[in-house]
Amino acid sequence: MIDKKFAVVSAVYNVSRYLDDFLSSLDRQTFDHSLIEIILVDDGSTDDSLDQLNEWAAATDFAVTMLMKTNGGQASARNLGLGSVTAEWVTFADPDDTLAEDYFEAVDASLNSHANAEMVICHLVDNFEATDEVKDSHPLRHRFRGGDQLVDVDRFPEYIHLHASSAFFRTAKVNDLGLRFDERLRPTFEDGHFVQKYLLMLPKRLVSVVDSAKYFYRRRADKSSTLQTSATDPGKYTTVLEFGCLQLLEQAAPEIPLWLQYVIIYELTWTLRAEEAMYSATSSLESAVVARFHELVGRIRGYLSSEAIESFPLVKRSTTQFEALAHGYVQENWRWQSVVVDSLDEDRRLVELRYHYTGTRPREVTRFRGKPIEPLAAKTRDFTYLRRALIHERILWVPADGTVEILLDGTPVPVTFGWPKPRQFSVRPAQVQAQRGSMQKQKSKARRPKPRKRSAKFSARDSFVPSMARAAPIRRMFADAWVLMDRDVNANDNAEHLFRYLRRRRRDINAWFVVEKNSPDWSRLRNEGYKRLIPYGSTLWKALCLNARYIVSSHADAYVYSPFVLSNGERPRWKFVFLQHGVTQNNISRWLNGKNIAGMVTSTVDEFASVAGDHSPYKLSAKDVSLTGMPRHDVLAKKASSYALDERSVITVMPTWRQFLVGEAIGRGNRRLPNYGFFESEFLRRWLDVLESPELQRMAEEHEYRIMFMPHPNLEDYLPGLTLPDHVEVRSFAETNVQDVIAQSAVVVTDYSSIAFDAAIVHRPVVYYQFDRERVFGGDHLTKPGYFSYDRAGFGPVALEHDQVLEALHMTLGHGKEPAPEYMRRIERTFVTPGHACSRVTEMIEELDHPVCIGDHRPTPKAPEIQYTN
Question: Which residues of 734-759 are buried (b: 16+ CB within 10 A; e: fewer)?
Fold first, then answer.
């Protein structure tokens, strides 16, 4: 006879810092402890986890079984523990999580009510360690809206479950079925695989859904859990798919239940969604792993019905996430059945048309007023997932002042104003009621007289701004203004240099410059005699913004182009021109595609093609992007030419920032809280090793050079905390003109910074030091690999280790103060000749206000291929 109701099997590995919380939550259980057995399996921990477990086992009133084994992974530890279970029900709580004190009591009550349940699932709630916030935010939380209930999963397939840690299984069924965790499945899905195999083997899949049993899942602050680190593990894209997802589908075939299809779609959707993030953790995967992923997904797709993919309701998907799985792995041409009118450029009298396709691009004929016409700009944008373009989007800009038709493969297609949506194969009562309520509201609204418009209400802080902005003197002063701005806290970038040009050459343009009044750059510009300065954040600045025609900036942060919304909803209605802070060499499409950019500056042929070209990931086209060069390069070229060879006497070390090093942002501006972990970081240690090296000092003395350290502005707040040798000069962007520094440099040492382009355009040698390349392009920094290969197209040697960077410096300095011939050839074929960027940018901005001539056409280059590290 079974004398235990529940068994907890917990696999423990190096979680000593969490064990007290977990074990205490067990001790606090209100259910009879004599009916619970605890099996703790230490999986070869190297911290003091085992000592803590033994100490607790000796003190608790639970029946505890302690097992030890060499490290083999969570699945093997759980399997060992399963062999010791005697209770009727078994669960697999993780030792870094915690349980509500009535957890087992709630489960027992549900089983008393639902005696025929074959499995129990409990309400997993997120516990964010960094903030100590407990939040019901799991994507599958909808399952618990109905409270405690018994659910037939075959009838209600949206009640999927993937966590063995928050589920209970009948021990006899597990043993009779010979079910164990698959030890090949790493780093994830061993739980999901176990749960689905259990359900597949049951004749009736009745699940007790227990909302009242709360399982607190720890979201670790250091992101060190298996789930949080899984994105860079090759097994997630190969082993998990082959022995997890594909195995389940093959076992269930040919009649694959809808709930299982939803499980697989759910897993794949998170992978596709991660690829649409600002950065990608898959960039550093080996190409063979990526190829295997797509092969396996193609096989998996063969088991999934189109209806299941289309009707999948569990998490919100982007259009292309759905289309990638529905059509990206099917070997046939597919396209939208209509072309969508997506936007209108009223000033240029252009309309944007879009449609998606896979396979061979359809033959296009665009008719305007009944005659064939070339679009002003047309491009194919690729939606790439793990290096493969699964969906293509055509973007066409055509004249708006006439009837437009489009033929694809010789057939006229409908032109619509709404994006296509997945079909719906069922309807729930709540949806019917909502639709009925919406219709009733529309009828009621039609019968009611229109209410009188009320004047907008303002907060006390905003009440003065609109009236000030509309005052005649202010409107005259700021009419059609160009607002130029670099950052809120500093200047001396492309916007400032364009502003200087406009005040010198184009006073007919109403140009104003914005920066914080307490910044050093405000004082500098004032001292130089510039009066058209407006303090960022001031009331006058808001009045300027509400009257301005353009915001022209080197930065594309929201605080620049969308800085405020008044309490009455009023906001700037300007156009945003992006001058860029540096040459775009990596893929920042996910960041830029979310912004409404009217015009964008590029400086090299490849950069222009990477953004506006066919098969690039950017939505921007030749309509929006111009190859002009950067305004600051005009000034840099003049400064650099004024330095003779013998005046280039500085070894300049200029590393860029890392997302994983900077502190949290303060408000919407560029200021950040300190991250004290910076001083213990590998980043700082590596660069200090270079700056403090006797070899670097000897090289400087041999050539009679100075050594200067000038890190990215985002790292300047840490400079006072550094102790460097006396022979190393420390400079900040706030105090020193970076162009003067580059101009007098004999060599510039950087990592991934676009400052290398500034050095190269004026023929200053460059050395790259990229010791953390895998981490930067592996998901820890806000970037993805782009078209630029440092090894094949960079302007100097690339070093990955300390000795290599010193050797590269030695060779570069030995060659002289000009780049070596190999790098000079790369420079010459890269850049637009500096000297006229300001006039070209001004002309580009002015064109944004003028209608395009019918028949004008801008050719679209082919985007260069993405250069992956592996």
Answer: eeeebbebbbbbbbbbbbbbbbbbbb
Question: Structural domains in the chain?
Answer: 6-227 (3.90.550.10), 632-831 (3.40.50.12580)
DSSP of 365-404, one letter per residue? Answer: EEEETTEE---SEEEEEEEEETTEEEEEEEEEEEESSS-E
Residue 117's alpha-carbon distances to 121, 154, 296, 430, in angstroms, are: 10, 14, 34, 27
DSSP, res 790? H
Confirm if 63 and 131 have CB atoms less than 8 A apart: no
Element (H, E) at 748: strand 745-750
Answer yes or no: are the C-beta atoms of 570 and 546 closer than 8 Å.
Answer: yes
Q: What is the DSSP string of 576-597?
A: EEE--SS---SB-HHHHTTS-E
Residue 334: in which H helix or E strand, if any? strand 334-335
Tokens of 214: 């709360």
Q: How far is CA 523 from CA 322, 493, 496, 539, in A?
A: 53, 16, 14, 20
Query: What residues does 170 pair with on adjacent strands?
Result: 89
pLDDT tens digit sequence for 735-759: 889 999 999 999 999 999 999 999 9
3-state secondary structure of 838: helix
| Three-state DSSP string of 101-138 | CCHHHHHHHHHHHCCCCCEEEEEEEEEECCCCEEECCC
Position 495 pLDDT exceeds 70: yes
Per-residue pLDDT tens over the stretch 221-242 = 876 766 667 888 999 999 999 9
How far, in Å, CA of 148 to CA of 150, rounded?
Answer: 7
Q: Which phi and psi (to 5°) does residue 250 adopt?
A: -65, -35
Name residue 535's beta-bridge partners: 515
**H-helix segments, 506-650:** 520-527, 539-547, 558-561, 589-592, 605-612, 631-641
Beta bridge partners of 206: 152
- Name residue, tokens 């259910």: 31
Q: What phi and psi values does residue 438 have, to the nearest 5 degrees?
A: -65, -40
Backbone angles phi, psi at 584, to 5 degrees: -75, 115
Torsion on CA atoms 472, 473, 474, 478, rounded to nearest 10: 100
Which backbone phi and psi does 864 adopt, to 5 degrees? Answer: -65, 155
pLDDT band at 778 (very low <50, low <70, confident <90, very high): confident
CB atoms within 10 A of CB 796: 27
d(CA 349, CA 856): 12
